[in-house]
Amino acid sequence: MIRQKLTLAVNGAPVSAEIESRELLVHFLRDHAGTGTHIGCDTSQCGACTVQIDGKTAKSCTVLAVQAQGRTVTTIEGLGTPKSLTPLQQAFTEAHGLQCGFCTPGMIFAGQALLDRVPNPTEEQVREALHGNLCRCTGYQNIVSAILLAASRVQQAADSPAKPEEALR
Questions:
Q1: Cα angle, residue 11 at apex, residues 7 and 14 outer, rounded to 5°
Q2: N or C, which terminus of the chain has less Cβ within 10 Å?
């Protein structure tokens, strides 16, 4: 069994641990960084374990933890706060885009990745962006609605000359 020391930033804080070289990032995040990153299928089909690595979306069950050495990882806990949700998190709350919450991190990261590329997506683009993320509770419509709501609010804020932060609420 080969072990090595790993250090990376998780949600802005450095985390170091000695791990087996075969350990998956999802397990590192849960066991050493104390995040609630979900383990869904262990086969990269459900998207529940989705995180950002250096700003790019990745399913953490498909990444060896050692591949994240020296990098910055953001989990769902690193986005917004309960008192200051991101526009997408707020839209998920208002549009009832979650039920049990298990798939929510993956849906939020997939939605945000889309909005970063396509600020004003169509419903079809949203549905395509969610491909690879499974939800067993909602039927997806409210998730799609939440992403479209967030997009429209961000667009309104960009178009409004006065107090753009007001449009995001």
A1: 30
A2: N
Q: How far is Cα 169 from Cα 90, in angstroms, rounded to an integer?
A: 8
Report d(CA 112, CA 120) in Å as an integer: 12
DSSP annotation of 22 = T
Q: Which domains does the chain have, with CATH numbers?
A: 3-78 (3.10.20.30), 87-167 (1.10.150.120)
Q: Using CA atoms, how far apart are residues 38 and 106, in angstroms rounded to an integer?
A: 9
Which distant-in-sequence residues (6+ apart) come within 8 Å of 116 by Cβ?
none
> Residues 129, 50: contact at Cβ < 8 Å?
no
**Is the pLDDT reported for residue 165 higher than 80?**
no
pLDDT tens digits, one per residue of 119-146: 999 999 999 999 999 998 888 999 999 9
